[in-house]
Amino acid sequence: MSLQIRNVNFETGRPQVAISLTGKTYEEIIQQCEKAVSRPVQVIEWRADFYLAEIDNIEEKLVKTDIYLEMLNILDGIREIIGEMPLIFTLRTGRQGGCIELSNEQIEGIQEFVAESNLVDLVDVEIRGLKKKNGGIGGNLLAARVKKLHELGARVILSYHEFDEMIPSKDIVRLVGAMTNYKGDMYKVAAMAHDTDDAKEMIRATAYLTREKIGPVITMAMGKAGAATRVIGGKYGSVITFAALDRASAPGQIEAGRLAEKLDEVYGAK
């Protein structure tokens, strides 16, 4: 399975390298972005939860226009720097590995706003914690979210993160299979590895999904024990690997320059 977005083709083989911008102010985000494009990187992700978490009375401000104009200004600044690089917009709550607490309705409103801006290419929708007001993950809720984002012009990454333990390979396959029912454009699963056997579970699942032409997928075993999956995952079908700039935005990320060297060793120099 492959997917072309702007000037980047996402397919099995050497994975495209993404760097996450985790700045807490406009200035920090732009400085990180300028630094990121000087690295061997093909994709930029804006982790907007780091920025929004620093804003006082965020829930009150989300009903006004100023905060949206500020986010638009940031997206404009990022797009000016990265040109035709694909841009992922990601907003995670605490239980999803992020650093802000917002309702599903608030997150949905922000995601729709940035999708409509036409400045982002992919919106990451974390299915963990996506619940209706009356509880439970609603299939109709998720399907409607994806459909709306598509209508507004964005592609969708449906993602699931497990920060405590590894998910058995058969359950990863089942999870991604269920995700495909909601018509995302990519499917991301990350789970914590405590040893090499855990890392192999993720690779095993990735290989099966690719063999069955389910995807494109983004997979990784987080933590030190899973670091190798961030390098060799592409051989089994993972199309993106996330690198660290100054600090990791997820456990086990490898600094961008060092990751490029390791990718050269496995896939050959570009």
Please tell me about this protein's structure.
It is a single chain. The chain is of the alpha/beta class and 270 residues long. Helix content is 41%, strand content 20%. The protein contains 10 helices and 11 strands. The strands form 2 sheets. The chain has a 9-stranded parallel beta sheet with strand order 9-8-7-6-5-4-3-10-11. It has a two-stranded antiparallel ribbon with strand order 1-2. The radius of gyration is 17 Å and the shape is globular.
Quickly list its features.
10 helices, 270 residues, 11 strands, alpha/beta, single chain, nine-stranded parallel sheet, two-stranded antiparallel sheet
Strand line-up across the major sheet: 9-8-7-6-5-4-3-10-11
Shape: globular
Tell me how many strands there are.
Answer: 11
Number of helices: 10
The separation of the N and C termini measures 22 Å
Please bin the fraction of helical residues: 40-55%
Rg measurement, Å: 17 Å
Low-confidence stretches: 131-137
Order of helices and strands: EEEHEHHHEHEHEHEHEHEEH
Tell me the fraction of residues in β-strands, as a range: 15-25%
In short:
The protein is α/β, with parallel strands linked by helices and 270 residues long.
